[in-house]
Amino acid sequence: MYMRRPIGYWCKRLDRLIEEAFDRAFGAAGVSRRQWQTLNVLGHGPAGDDALAEALRPFWDGGDVPMTGVIADLRGRGWIERDPAGRHGLTPGGRAAHARIAEAVAGIRATVAQGVTDEEYRVTMDVLRRMTENLEHVC
Question: Nearest-CA neighbor of 23 among 39, 34, 8?
Fold first, then answer.
């Protein structure tokens, strides 16, 4: 049965289900996807405006990164602050929020990969990457 459906069906279906799962998790945590992405980038260490925008660009479809509102909201929650060098960084409350949400994200990722071996996952990711590259050259 599964072979009767084209790859586009399965990619779209999986993407939709992943989006729904993450939306539920972020909603339960009281954050938007953009806020999570910002917290996650800053979870790796402080970043200035340009570095943060560059790290977030892929999540904003490669265009301008409208960080002002996201930064203001996270700062208002007391989760991020600027250091003396002007970089954004997580506060202790921000690190706690990041860790809590990261746990939910890890749970979703584990659910997605349930019953899939590490080798199957690696091969799937490689095949999807190559198929994407094939189409990037013609689109």
Answer: 34
User: Can you read off the two tokens belonging to residue 108?
Assistant: 């979703």
The model's pLDDT over 15-31, given as tens digits with 9 standing for 90+, comes to 999 999 999 999 999 99
In 79-116, which positions are buried (b, 16+ CB within 10 angstroms) versus exposed (e)?
bbeeeeeebbbbbeebeebbeebeebbeeeeeeeeeee
Look up tokens 């399965």; give the residue: 10
Q: Report the top-level CATH class of 29-106.
A: mainly alpha
The pTM of the full predicted model, rounded to 2 decimals, is 0.81
Q: How confident is the model at residue 62 (pLDDT cuts 50, 70, 90)?
A: low
What is the 3-state secondary structure of the chain?
CHHHCCHHHHHHHHHHHHHHHHHHHHHHHCCCHHHHHHHHHHCCCCECHHHHHHHHHHHHCCCCCCHHHHHHHHHHCCCEEECCCCCEEECHHHHHHHHHHHHHHHHHHHHHCCCCCHHHHHHHHHHHHHHHHHHHCCC
